[in-house]
Amino acid sequence: MSKKKNGESVPARAAIDKPSNLPELALVAVRDTIIYPHLMSPLIVGREQSIRAVEAAIATNQRIVVFLQRNSEQQDPKPEDLYPIGTEVSVGRMLRMPDGTTSVFAQGNTRVQLVEVLQSDPFFLARVMPIHEPVDKSMPTEALMRAVLALFEKTVRLNQNLPDDAYVAAMNADTPGWLADLVASTLNMEMAQRQELLETLDPITRLQKISILLAKEVDVLELQNKIHSQVQEEVDKTQREYYLREQMRVIQQELGEHDPQTREINELREKIKAAEMPKEVQEKAEHELERLAQMPSAAPEVGVIRTYVDWLIGLPWAKTTTDNLDIAAAAKLLDEQHLGLKKAKERILEYMAVRKLAAEKMRSPILCFVGPPGTGKTSMGRSIAQALGRSFVRVSLGGIHDEAEIRGHRRTYIGALPGRIIQTMKRAATLNPVFMLDEVDKIGADFRGDPSAALLEVLDPEQNYAFSDHYLDVPYDLSHVMFITTANMLDPVPPALRDRMEVIEFPGYIEEEKVAIAKQFLIPRQKAEHGLVASPRFSDDAIKSLVREYTYEAGVRNLEREIANICRKVARMIAEGKRAPSNIGEQSLFKYLGPTKFTFGIAEEKDEVGVATGVAVSEAGGDTMAVEVTLMRGKGGLMLTGQLGDVMQESAQAALSYARTHAQQLGLKVNFDKIDIHIHVPEGAIPKDGPSAGITIATALISALSRRAVHKEVAMTGEITLRGRVLPIGGLRDKVLAAHRAGLKTMLIPKKNKKDMIDVPKKVQREMQFIYVERMDQVLPVALTHARAARRTTVRSASPRSARLALQANYRSRPIRS
Ligand code: ADP
């Protein structure tokens, strides 16, 4: 037999009565109930028509048929507005309800199909066809019934709203259809779905649908229970805690004990008094303390306020040290700790002298120590503090991008703290420390705010007596602090900041100075730090070799590190009971430090065409820099490589224009339109900029064009103009020292820079030849050899020097300025 959609055709197992003896029964249309066969349920009848139908049934055979209307909103449904399958029910007595409706007790008998409606007035009378279900006791049916029962048991257990009786009733439902109907009546679902189940005439199919619905229901119930119990646990915990705390409070009160919070607040009050804060600050602190006292100890803000009050208490507000103004003693101390550095020492002694005369009226100067790493800036700062008898603190500004790092975050931020200035003042513990701000050349500005603006406020004597930190929220007096800033280079320091400061240069050291520093300071200190009493002695040759072949720097930081290396190895020998050396000679360095790291001597191995040696200044001090030029057949192009900055590129253009316009005088016999020129400054990964390589580029270029080699021991520096004038440059001392360190013998220097030679140590002046030039035509006769090299277009690719330079990985993240 066919098995079409539910209710539309006769199902396989259902048997239907013949039409001739079909019953005619009163019909009640319902909106929101379905009465399944075997089940009892109150039926609420409100509509007049329905009441009359029920009354008629009670008067006769007590049976009606109930059909669900498709649209529950509809007031007067027509027969076609009803679903085709309904239930025949027996009705009992009618009961009038307090809300005016009538309720009648109904017991479902069988499913019926609507055949025809015989009358509509005064009530519906319909002919219906009862649908009887076959009895199926097969094993699969039995198994399905048990599975549904098991699921139903779970549902009843999990769902508080279902009475346990529901399960008992289900156990006693002995046909699959009955069981399906019974479970359906307990599940929560839409009317359309209920009707669908009513119309599913095959009992097995119906039971299968029910088992799927039940499984879903169990899942949902389990999840619900889980969530519920988690929430409950949380609530219980908080309640319990609150309850216990309250009990504790009451018990403490009964025993006459102060609770810890009150004790703590009293302690804080004492501390605030002892901190000698300005009136305004003290009021603020006390106000916060009051807030704290009124809060329950478990309130989340307690920690925040506590930390804030602690910060206020911890800062120095009145404590100062008395300056030691004994100039002779200070001079002695500074000399004992540092060799040379005359300018810095003198400046401090002058400051002390003026302080002595003008006393408090005088403002502290803001010094800025500028120089390569390891030239004693930090240790000089420390000595100054010691000479003045002040405490010394230091904070690094390197890499700060955010104004909040200087000024702090507002207290509304979670985990907010004061900025670095206030944090450091707390460490200083006095109001007038020597405060060193390291690396002012490495602060950056971006979307997070400009830290240098905040720094200006710190350093401005007009404002810094009331420095505002976002966290602190009360003004803090920085006017007694002596600020010293340090920088490796002055260029990147924002001009507004530079204006406030008095720059003192810490130039690089020459070899003799380094040897002397090592002997007088570094070696004795490292020996002491490594517990070495007398031996070993370092020979002069060894120290010289350390300076020349193991380090290559403007300062003495690596030198000190290598000395520490040796001391450590000797200390270990002694600790292991081995025989320790009493002397460190040049020969033994290999044993401690391995092979030499740098070769000392002339930069280039031989005179070459198209390579000239310039000098540049980077953060690490001065350094030599090769400029290479190669010519190729081409179309008059110019290629520049080696990460040259705009200014350096312009220099190269200017040098080329000079060469072209002066080709005849220079004796150049090249057709510029038929060659391409490639200018390269090796160590391509390091950005280079500045105008002072002008004459070096021009020399290399003219060398390549004329095929006259460049003297290998000549270094040069100077800006070039289109007409071939040589203009002065900055940082002469560092540049000369770099050339000297690299073993170059002659240096070409712009005439206008002659005055700066006063800063160059006499020894260097004696050992090198300096030629002062004003025009390019004075440069070339000195720099270029007379012999012409054999004709060739390509010059060469890499110099041995560039390989050596690659070893010097230190401090090379910043641009080199030529
Ligand atoms: P910077 O702050 O300039 O980078 P440091 O102050 O850290 O350099 O100096 C590095 C080391 O070199 C320190 O141990 C310092 O004492 C020592 N030093 C540098 N210059 C001198 C000098 N002129 N006299 C004595 N020691 C010096």
What does this protein structure show overall?
With 818 residues, this protein is α/β, with parallel strands linked by helices. Helix content is 42%, strand content 19%. It is built from 27 helices and 29 strands. The strands form eight sheets. Strands 19-20-18-17-23-26-27 form a seven-stranded mixed sheet. It has a five-stranded mixed β-barrel with strand order 2-4-5-6-7. Strand 26 (746-750), helix 25 (762-767) and strand 27 form a beta-alpha-beta unit. The longest helix is centred in the first third of the chain and has 53 residues, at 203-255. It is elongated, with a radius of gyration of 49 Å. The model is unreliable at 1-18 and 791-815 (pLDDT under 50). Adenosine-5'-diphosphate is lined by residues 338-341, 373-379, 517, 521, 555-557, 560.
